[in-house]
Structure formats: C-alpha cells, structure tokens
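Let's practice the habit of predicting before peeking. Look at the sequence and jot down your guess about where helices and strands might fall. Then scroll down.
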Amino acid sequence: MQFTAKQISEIVDGSVEGNEKVVVSRVEKIEEAMEGGLTFLANPKYENFLYTTRASVVIVNNDLEVAKPIGPTLIRVKNAYTAITLLLEQYNQIRLHKTGIEEPSFVHPTAKIGEEVYIGAFSYIGAGAVLGNKVSVYPQVYVGDNVKLGEGTILFPGVKVYHDCVLGKDVIVHSGTVVGSDGFGFAPQEDGTYKKVSQIGNVVIEDEVEIGANSTIDRATMGHTIIRRGVKLDNLIQLAHNVEIGENSVIAAQTGISGSTKVGKHVVLGGQVGVVGHITIADGSQVQAQSGINRAIEEPGLKWAGSPASSFQSQMRTQVVMQRLPDLERRIEQLEKLLSDNLTKK
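Done guessing? Here is the structure:
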C-alpha cells in the first residue's frame, strides 16, 4: 500500500511542509527509517533523529521548531502520537481485512453467518453458531455449538471457543487462547479420589475486549464467567470459573485469578499476580507485579504490593528495611562482641 504525504495529511488533519507528492509504503521507527518510510516525532528527546533520519515523511507536532536543515517532508499536526496511532489503526484494518469462506473449512448448516464475514481454512463453525457482520475467523479456529460472535470480532489463528460462549462486538482474541474450557471443579471422595463436577455455565465477553495469546478463560460451573466491556488482557493469563472482570480493567501477563473472584472496574494487575478465590477487588485498585492477593480489597483506588500483598507504601518501607538487614546484622554482632569483652574483663 502506498500513500502520498498529501493523502496522509488529509487523514490526520495536518499540514504539509515539503513535497506533498512524496510516496511512502511503510511505517518505521525514526532512528531506523529509510526512503519510502513514514515515521513520527512526539518525544523531544528523539529530536536529534529528525536531522539524520532517511524517512521520506515525518509527522511532527505543530509547535516543533526545526533547528537544522532536514531531508524529509513534514506533516504538522496537533498531536503527533495521536496521529500516528490513527494511521496505524487504519493501516492494520486494511491489512487484516478479508472476506469469504476458504476451503477446506466446515460450517454447520444451522450456523448463521452475517455479511462480510471471513472464515479461514481448516476452521470449524458448530451447530447454531451465530457470526455477526464483519466477523473474522482465521485459519484453524474452533467455534463450538451455539457460540455467538458479535459484529467486527476477530479470532486469530488457533483460537478455541467452546459451546454456548458469547462474545460481543469488536472483541479481539489472539492465537492459542481457549475460551470456555472446563473450570477446575473436582469433589473429593471418601476414598481419596476426586469426582469431576460438570461445568454447565459459559463465558460472556462484552464489547471491545482484547485478549492476548495463549490465555485460558474457564467456563462457569453454573452461570457465567464474565469479562466486562473494554477489558484488556495480556498473554498467558488464567481466569478460573465464575470470575468476573470489571469494565476497562487491565491485566498483565502470567496473572492467575482463582474461581468466583470479582475484580472491579479500572483495576490494574501487574504481571505474575496471583489472586485467591471467592474475594472481591475494589474499583481502581493497582497491584504491583508478582504480588499475591490473599484477601479481599474493599477500599477503592489504592495501590498494593508484595506477597501476601499489603499497601504499596508499607511494602516500600519493608524493602528499605530489608536492604539494611546485612548492616544491622553486622552491628548486632559488634555489640555482642563488645558486651562479651566487657563481661570477660570483669
């Protein structure tokens, strides 16, 4: 795909300084860009690259003052970072846009397929499944019986969505993720064995959720495992049965949340956080990476750290003391020796 500087300026509502007919075909980092590349400058600390880059077009802020001669054409905008974000989004939509049903693939006769849908090769669409308009199902995806996929939802290669699960509009699920596998439910028996408890609920994912690669979201034992609107999940995340994640919460990689825990709105969980089951985490909570949440967080908007987790400020003080322990140990040994010497002299 090729665009002129003028075409790009019209998309981002900018003004061109230089050759408005120059053509670009790719987006690159400013320090690595070559001829035919489009880049941007939003952070002043990278300004020196503006005078050395070989990019053909650079998007900059309106208030940037150029201190030296430059080679590329400039597109001035109100906010360069916002402009490049818009361009990347549109570029990605064009690049990923596909329609039609590839062969070989299987679509059950009772499945309902909307308009402008893409179903990649070796995919399976089960009985009673509903795919809304502009849904994209990439190769080797499994969509179980009675699954509902809302308009514009994208399932990348290798995603598995078990029966009865519901995904809203504009949901993105990356490769290898499993939605609706059985929750970890086993009843202990008198003879020391475990009997599986049937997991008859489902998973409900609301609009504009994005889920990273190789994550697992268990179906509910009864009722629903729920991911609310706008949630963003990283790669390698485990959500157990009947978990609920509140609107616009963000969870980083390798985090695990045990069954029936309710996470509030606008919560941030860092990487490798562990959360026990059957608790609530208040709205706006922020939890540092590798923390362990072993009890409910009831007061909203606080920061937490450590394992078991405590307030962020308390953890910072604890870390300062921990760093001083070797020195404290040495001083105690010196005091013990001094006391011993004094007693010996007496």
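How did you do? The helical segments are 5-12, 80-96, 312-345.
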